[in-house]
Amino acid sequence: MNRNKVGLAVGAGCIILVLLFVIALSLVFPLFNTIAMPVREVSQPAAPSEEQTFDLLPTLTPATQGVEPQVTSSPAAISTLPGLEANSLTALYRQLNPGVVNIQVYVERETLSGVGAGSGFILDNEGHIVTNHHVVADATQVTVIFFNGLEAEAEVIGVDAESDLAMLKVAQLVEGVHPLPLADSDQVQVGEWVVAIGNPFQLGGSMTVGIVSAMGRTIPTGSTPFVIPQAIQTDAAINPGNSGGPLLNLRGEVIGVNAQILSRGAPANAGVGFAIPANVVRRIAPALIENGSYQWPWLGVQGGDVSLAIMEANDLPQQTGAYIADVVPDGPAEEAGIQGTSHIEEVDGVEVPVGGDVVIEADGQPVTDFASLLVRVAYKNPGDTVDLTVLRDGQEQQLTVTLEPRPENLEP
Description:
The chain is mainly β. The chain folds into two domains: about 130 residues, Pdz3 Domain, CATH 2.30.42.10; about 220 residues, Beta Barrel (Thrombin, subunit H). The chain contains eight helices and 26 strands. Strands 1, 18, 19, 22, 23, 24 and 25 form a seven-stranded antiparallel sheet that branches. Strands 11-12-13-16-15-14 form a six-stranded antiparallel barrel. The radius of gyration is 22 Å and the shape is globular.
């Protein structure tokens, strides 16, 4: 396998810096159609790269005409769910829906103009509203529609394409609405019941129920050569128009921001949706409000998980750690002395990278895979240092990396 099939490149924190091959995988988020993206396994960099028959799509929808919101329910089915009753969900909906908004955007470009629809939720009593970056990207006008049908013009005051989040501001909240609190998404467990409220197919105020299917997924941002780890996977129905809306636990806390679905071609729910974790919102929201942007730290390496093939080819003691395939020239990792793959070996007909450092600890905490390396760097700032323990030629070495601001125009 050549290096372009090895895996991911790390920016930092909640975002991975990915080189050219991942840029080709990144989503394009047009307002009026979606471009299919082959999804590749990123946790097994030594395995041949295989395209799946799924498309990872943003959950933004064009505005529909002449469609009235409809509510469908199955009380009998709901009542059979352990720990859930139809009346408890009804009360939960009444509690949460006033904190959710529908978003309409108007975009005018040289080759395209029109209206699209998404979702959002109220962050505070000052009129700040969270949504996805891809919902409002290039918007010339944004309108927020509250649960009671009242509308307000909104200003896009902050965007972060690398986490696919954006911050809106309305001059005044209408009566009856309220903010939704953020949960600690690090405490979310697989199997928890969740609800999603949003504007699917421009059917505002729609609620669906499901569970947390998995934690720690990695999804592309769609508009940058970076991806977002620690995403929450859910089987709650997420459809076009849910983008930017909240995924909530049964305590009424936002655990994530609905962003994407995995689907077989058609942009509709297939039981696999993804939400950006609430702790990312908590981290970057103040900067979006104050500065209009957020600066992620940058490590400057490319790599992936330690697969069985990598472990055997590199004579590693165990299948754990973050394998470094490449370092970005003149980046912080290279300056600290981190080394990438020295050569490629063929093992049982499979090309395997050999000679790269394997990060096993960051600031004294175990690094079990590539995603955990990102998490260890996640909530640092440019200028901070991270102490890495790496395996090189069978020996542990200690290296200190001074993180830098992520380059705005990174060349692959």
